[in-house]
Amino acid sequence: MTKEEELDREGLRVLRWSMFDSPDKEGSGYMFMEREPVVALDRAAHYYEFIPNIILGYTSKSYADGIGLVSNNSHRVGKAVQIRCVGHKKRLKLVRSLMEQGVQRFSIGREVVYFDTDEMKPPAIYLW
Question: In the 3-class helix/strand/coil scheme, how is the chain assigned residue by residue?
Fold first, then answer.
């Protein structure tokens, strides 16, 4: 394994830090994503044997501005993850596994599950 591949997997069993990169900045997931949401998702993925389809992790200021994220959005500070998850059984499995890891803030849609570990926001479950 190359040094770059080792860094991409550092501290993770299933996921890679590059899965959380801002679309406009390679390596930003490793540099700016908070450890707590990534490790929680990695533990859940390992335990329940699934690989999540991550839509959005960390976002750079320019990318976040471009897609209209508000200034206090948790993606901007690397504390939020948005995952494509189709099917009620898969959504339940994903949310349950994250709750077991201590995550307390979710938004759930028909094809998307969002979660964050932002302490500045109250625990909640929202429907999209």
Answer: CCHHHHHHHCCCCCCCHHHHCECCECCHHHHHCCHHHHHHHHHHHHHHCCCCEEEECCCCHHHHHHCCCCCCCHHHHCCEEEEECCCHHHHHHHHHHHHHCCCCEEEECCCEEEEECCCCCCCEEEEC
